[in-house]
Amino acid sequence: MGVRGLQTFIERDCPAAWSVVSVKDIADNFRLQTGRNATVVVDGNSCLRAIYGGLDWVHGGQYKQYIEKLTDFINFFTRLKISLVFFFDGPTVERKRPVWCERREAAQRDIEMIYQLLHSGTNVSEIPSRLFQIPAGIGLATRIFLKTHPQCTVFTTVQECDEEVVQFAVQNQCFAILGQDSDYIIHEGTYYYMSINHLDIRRGTTYIYNRFALARELRIEPFALPLLASLVGNDIISKAQLSDFHFGLFNRHPRNRELFFAVADFIRHFRDENDIWRSLPHICKDVFASEFCFGRTNYVPLLESSLLSYKPFSGTASGENVERPLESWSVIVQTAKELMKSNVLMTAVYGVVADHTFELSASLEDRQCNRFPSIAVHYLALRKRTYGVLLEQCSTRMPVIFEYCANKNKHLQREEVLADPVPHGLHPGLLTLWDKTLNTPAIDRRRWSLFVWGLTGSLQLPIERLMYLPLKLVAVVAICHYFTLAQPQFLEEWEIYSLLVQTLKLHVLGTEDLRSLRVPPTNLRCLNIAAMFLRGIQHVIFLANAVGLPVPDSELSPVNVFDGILFHKVYTDTKNGIPFSRQIRHQASEDLLTEMASLTFSRS
Q1: Quick one: CA dihedral 313, 314, 318, 324, positive or negative?
Q2: CA distances (Å), 282 to each of 50, 239, 288, 300, 543, in order?
Q3: 211-218 and 256-267 are packed helices; what angle lies between their axes, rounded to 10 degrees?
Q4: Correct CATH for 6-216 of 3.30.390.50, 3.40.50.1010, 3.30.390.30, 3.40.50.300
Q5: What is the rounded distance in angstroms from the CA atom of residue 459 to the CA atom of residue 448?
Q6: What strands, in cross-sheet order, belong to the sheet with 414-418?
Q7: What is the model's pTM?
């Protein structure tokens, strides 16, 4: 995230540019100096790993315990009377697509290495931390939890997250930005940038960074830092695009420290910011020489884009407040945008209606296991029907979506997907579906009917019985039913039952109970089922958002349906012959299991 190697360079080689501080002390000083309340703007995505910490991730994640840690994080700032405003990533900005793809392919290689280690008998606890993968659904569970938390304000970005974070912090004169994205060290105008990786809520300390000290150490002016970041490599200009330039500085591949000082030497002669802008063609010719020689690429727009990304933008998008006919497609797009920004609807809903690319990151699935389909392929039918719901009213373009979905069986590439048409008479219109003031039985029935159609491609799943199921069980029944529709079948019936049972057990176990569970021997098939199931829950929440949330997403959250170690235990116990009745031990839960199984395996 951010400028490649900058965090390491500062912390190892530039001690004047960082310091350990007491969060309470600097917040008190801020109030004293400015007379304002202290607000921290949190880059949500860059904080997930630090908050998740040392919880188990290989088995699929420990969501209840993660939410407990997230609550402790929030309470730390609440005790200090510091307000929290969270920002989460919206659709990927297309100029960053090459770097996004690079990182997903790197994650896929790491996942292959994880499974190679597991196949060779390596214990889960011995897997190197550098291979860590944030459990699928943690980001979504975080957003769902925070939007109902009274101490937090949550936004989803339309532009690049770090740019909107800085804009908000500057415009609202906020106390600090909290995250782990070295772009914040380069940005102008922020009061403090605090590191989430170094936040110790027991001691109340963290690191803060000083961009002026960084510039002094490199013997450049602060105005040149965006150019330094661009030529070292960031989220817009990739390492691969700069590799020839970096090699040419030393006639070899430089070490991290060498690279920063060498790039600083390369740009030190610029007198001011205007001098840099006037010189962009010459800079690009020197930096991207091989590309220029063959006339293949004009890198000036790319470098411009990188430099501008470090300047907080202001104002609203052109035409955003223009009145339009009530039922026009542009009003639907604008409504989806506003609902996404305020964290009411998930990013993918706005992304589809606004003609953005749909994304599915790498999952913890085993490439060597050919008995399971790729997760991306398995859920394609569900996505196509969800796209159909979202594009039913669009007459301005073909009902086609472009996807970047990580697939264990092939290289990451853009795919074109045609949406499935919605059956005639089933769709009342997106504005009607999304309007939560319209909660009449008739409209609610339409939401449920579209949900069932999106899930199954028919209306054969008994809607009334699904509607009257406890809401926390809808997601697990929905995705387990979807498993039964797969052709050919790749899960055994007892494996699907195991998913249902672990959800019921999860509802009666607290975090202390979950912490006390012994981790059973690792079963690689069970890990693949967990990965498949968790991506399924994300797809179900996407569908539910598209049709107007007939079930609140707080009920659909992964927190309510899955714990990786618990599922592994239930799976192992079942495989070893322990009956489900002994595992549940409550008559009410047994009755629920009977109803859940009846719906899961329903064919009428």
Answers
A1: positive
A2: 41, 20, 10, 9, 50
A3: 80
A4: 3.40.50.1010
A5: 10
A6: 358-360, 400-405, 414-418
A7: 0.91
User: Which helix (DSSP H) or strand (DSSP E) does residue 193 occupy?
Assistant: strand 193-195
Answer yes or no: are the C-beta atoms of 557 and 140 closer than 8 Å. yes
Q: What are the pLDDT digits (tens) for 498-554?
A: 999 999 999 999 999 999 999 889 999 999 999 999 999 999 999 999 999 999 999
Instruction: Check residue 277 and give its pLDDT.
Output: 94
3-state secondary structure 344-378: CCCHHHHHHHCCCCEEECCCCCCCCCCCCCCHHHH
How far apart (Å, rounded) are the C-alpha atoms in residues 175 and 108? 38
pLDDT digits (tens, 9 = 90+) for 333-360: 999 999 999 999 999 999 999 999 999 9
Are 363 and 369 contacting, i.e. CB atoms less than 8 angstroms apart? Answer: no
Do residues 200 and 24 lie in contact, with contact meaning Cβ atoms separated by under 8 Å? no
pLDDT at 586: 75
Question: Residue ranges of the domains in the chain?
Answer: 6-216, 218-308, 329-600
C-alpha distance from residue 16 to each of 12, 150, 187, 214, 227 (Å): 10, 38, 18, 7, 21
Q: Work out whether strand 414-418 and strand 400-405 pair parallel, antiparallel, or are unpaired.
A: antiparallel
